[in-house]
Amino acid sequence: MSQTPLRKRVRVQTLLLFLLCGWLLALQLTILFEHGLAGQSASVGDALLARNTETGSANAVTSVVVSYRGFDTLGEVTVLFLAATAIGLLFGGSGPAAPGRAVSESSGTGRSAPNEMMVTGVRLLFPALILLGVYVVVHGHLSPGGGFQGGVIIATAFFLRMLAEPGLVLSHTRIGLLESVSGSGFVLIGLLGLSLVGTATFLGNFLPHPVASMGQLLSAGVIPIIYVLVGIKVGAEVGAIFGDMLEGHDARSVPIQKNEGE
Amino acid sequence: MLEFLDSPRVLHGIYVLGSLTLFVIGLYGLLAKRHLLKILISIAVMELSVYLLFVGLATSPGETAPILSDGLRAFAGMADPVPQALTLTAIVIGMAVLALGASLTIQYHRLTGNADVTAMTELKDS
Amino acid sequence: MALPLTPIWFVALPLLVAFSSPLWARLRLLMPLLLGVPLTLLVLAIALHPLVRTAPLVETIVIAPPLGIHLQLDSASLLLIALIGLASALVAAFLWLGDTEAHLRGRRAFVLMLLLIAGCNGLVLTGDLFNLYVFLEIAGVSAYALSALRQDAPALEAGLKYLIIGSVAAVFFLFAVVLIYLQTGSLSLGAVASSFGEIPGPMQILIGLLMLVGLGIKAELFPFNFWVPDIYQGSHPAVASLFSGILVKAFLFVLFHLVFVLLADPEVIRTWLMGLGAATMLVAETVALRQQDLRRMLAYSSLGQVGLVTLALGFGSEATLAGGLFHLVNHTLVKLLLFLLAALMLRHLLSVRLADLAGLGRVMPLAAGLFVLGALAVLGLPPLSGFVSKLWILKGFAEAQVLWPIALILLAALIEAAYYFRWIKTLYEPRAQMQEGRPLGHWVYAPVVLLAGLLILLGVAPFLVQDLFIEGAQSLLARDVNLEAMLGARP
User: Whole-angstrom Cα distance, residue C380 to residue C396?
Assistant: First the structure.
């Protein structure tokens, strides 16, 4: 087998792929241009928007995410939990009992030391980021934002600290506790809604949520509580994913530190 | 001068063209690339194009964000909240799957020194 | 305050137990709970049966169906739920009693398996398209992680391949859901079904194709199933038994549920589905002939049976539907039996290649005997249950005067016989010395023997369960009743 025919074959393959993809694009474009441009006439979303005042939440997206389609959100949090569990399995090594100290000591040599800018900047940013994250979570039913966005901001704050202080290792047991408490809390609130006569449906809004208080921090009944739980859960999961990846990186990079050192 | 952009048909046409082009770029990357991380990126591009299509086509020009603030007092003339909520859900799911895929790739690369999808030959017809 | 027994428990209970897993790990209750949760769900399913018989049970979540999410439990989905409970309980018992590898018994594997069960239950129950996507991802992600559980190169390769192909399927499915929402403005199955006919024709075809690709990948239908044997070979056989036993079945059910609910006239797609089923069956059975690894052979055989079920369900007459559902249950039981036996052989001999299994009949007589029983059940020999279900399917086709599927099914059975007898012959070949692995306790065999007993029981006395399957088939076909139940649910 010589070089030329092989290369030729590859080119033909690429060309065919190009043609295939172009054809698919043209096909989908014709269908969508023909039938998909009119916009929607009447959708479920409009109906939900029209009756959104009943939830007492000023943010209609939040009332859809947490209340009307709260079951989807539960599923989404579950997927995140699954991914964090699996990543912990891949990078966690022997198990959660592994001492954090040993990993952190080896990591001090594995990664290049963070520079002064990084350390000082993170020290300044950390409280501000945490505050911003908490604000975004708590005001999810009033303004753009909510549990996911705020949870990710909080996780980012911790991630920055992990980068700036190589000795810092998040406690696996504590993260596990946060994960399980917030996740179980979500399901239990849902079951409480199912068991109380007033709502009698899973995830029903059983706390008082008068329309008059719409726009205040304490309004919308159960929605802010669920969103705070989601925030804790997302923060813990994403933080755990960051932490596991970083530890897994440190644990392996020790033998080849000379190549990376700079 | 640019008023024609306010007509929903034109605007939606631009959204459709852009997001479908992205989708096909992702599809091409998925089929043509062999590096595992490039394949994962292609899948992410495909997912993102679907989100863009969803949010873009479900909103008409002139609609505001479905939030009561800045003087808005009634839920009228606002964008459909459902596609935004669904996209939020789908983005988080996509991120979780992508994180798992990247971790699997890293671990596989550590174990075998290989990140080429055509060279994955542990499992094959015997 | 009372806790009503509604379908939500099939999802909420495994979720709750999985989320609170650190507590159970500390109390050393992981294995009892892994067995207990599916058993509880099985009992709940049986308890709900009288209620479901009269009318489909629709549970709304927060807001009534056209606007919100609902779960629907009818005779057909109840059948699947009970099957999922039974199968996962048996696998859990095998893991517990069998003293299996540590990585299958840890907290993380516990979480993954429970969420796989929750995902499959949600797939079967949900009546909302986007919710279906969420459950598809839950079931998918837990399956990707489960197949990579052992963390050696083959397992990671299986996990990666599964993740890539599964994500592609999910993207295609999501695209179809997005287009449906943009066209009909609704996600609830009932509302979508009543306005699906008004979508312009080309758009209907695009949505249908995207869905068929997405669900076809997940349900392992022919052009999209090239990845399946790799996954089954790379995963632990007990995990593979869960994939073949419940995951594929849930996706097959979803595919046909959507077909029968969305399309006013399923005849349009009948030829396509039957063609896909027949192609899946024939191609898989032919390729299975030359496999040298037991897990791969079982994977191809599983694909063949999936094709047969698709063929029967795709035809869509009441008799073939009942036969198809019965065969689906049978196949779950048989594949659980065979994959769990493969797990035992793998542990004892450290290999399940054809050449290494020669003479197994002398070392592990019970395992070899049960393997023969399972093989005969796949082939459909009386008095085993596979015979009855295949007979129902063939009778259904004969009544409808459609003969080509009968010929194909008999041909496939012939090919199946060829390769299963090749393996059986090897098992009983005389061989001088076998290397000995770890000795197995007697309790290891308890779940496997129970499975074999169920196969014989269903084969000897199919009338015990006949009504269940006929009711299931009727409820799948009763589109009007389903739509009415979905749209008229209480707020």
Answer: 16
Q: Is B99 close to A18, i.e. CB distance below 8 A?
A: no
Q: Does C99 touch chain B (CB under 8 A)?
A: no
Return d(Cα A85, Cα C429) in angstroms, integer: 45
What DSSP string runs through A209-261? --GGGTTSSS-STTHHHHHHHHHHHHHHHHHHHHHHHHHHHHHHHSTTHHHH-
Which residue, among A41, A77, A195, A202, would best test binding to C if mutated, counting the most C CBs under 10 Å from its CB?
Answer: A202
CA dihedral B13, B19, B24, B27 (to 10 degrees): -160
Between chains, do C1 and A90 touch, taking CB under 8 Å as contact?
no
Domain ranges within chain C, ordered by starting residue: 1-264, 268-460
Cα–Cα distance for residue pair C150/C154, rounded to 1 Å: 9
Burial C110-130, CB ≥16 within 10 A → b, else e? bbbbbbbbbbbbbbbbbbbbb
Residue the block writes with tokens 């027994």: C5
Chain B: residues touching A (Cβ < 8 Å): 8-9, 12-13, 16-17, 20-21, 23-24, 27-28, 31-32, 57-58, 60, 65-69, 75, 78, 80-86, 88-89, 92-93, 96-97, 99-100, 103-104, 106-107, 110
**If you search the block for the tokens 């796989």, which residue do you land on?**
C116
The three-state secondary structure class of C353 is strand
Judge: B108–C178 Cβ closer than 8 Å, yes or no.
no
By Cβ distance, the residue of C1, C118, C135 closest to A195 is C1
* Class for the domain spanning B3-60+80-119: mainly alpha
* A144 shares contact with chain B (CB less than 8 Å): yes
End-to-end CA distance of chain C: 20
> How buried is A108 (Cβ within 10 angstroms: 0-12 exposed, 13-18 middle, 19+ buried)?
exposed
Tokens read off for C222: 């022919």
C 200-239 → B contacts, CB under 8 A:
229-230, 233-234
CB C296 within 8 A of CB C359: no
What is the rounded end-to-end Cα distance, in angstroms, of chain B? 67
Question: pLDDT 10s per residue in chain C (491 long)?
Answer: 567 788 888 999 999 999 988 888 888 888 888 899 999 999 999 998 888 888 888 888 877 778 888 888 988 999 999 999 999 999 999 988 876 777 888 888 899 999 999 999 999 999 899 999 999 999 999 999 999 988 888 899 999 999 999 999 999 999 999 999 888 888 888 888 888 888 888 888 889 889 999 999 998 888 888 888 889 988 889 999 999 989 999 999 999 999 888 888 878 888 888 999 999 999 999 988 888 888 899 999 999 999 999 999 988 888 899 999 999 999 999 999 999 999 888 888 777 888 888 878 788 888 888 999 999 998 888 888 888 899 999 999 999 888 899 999 999 999 999 889 888 888 888 776 666 666 677 788 888 899 999 999 988 888 888 888 988 888 888 888 888 888 775 54
State both tokens at C60.
């709304």
Give the predicted TM-score (pTM) of the model: 0.91
Residue C390 has which token pair? Answer: 């295949």
Q: Which of left, alpha, beta for A205 (phi over 0: left; psi -120 to 50: alpha)?
A: beta
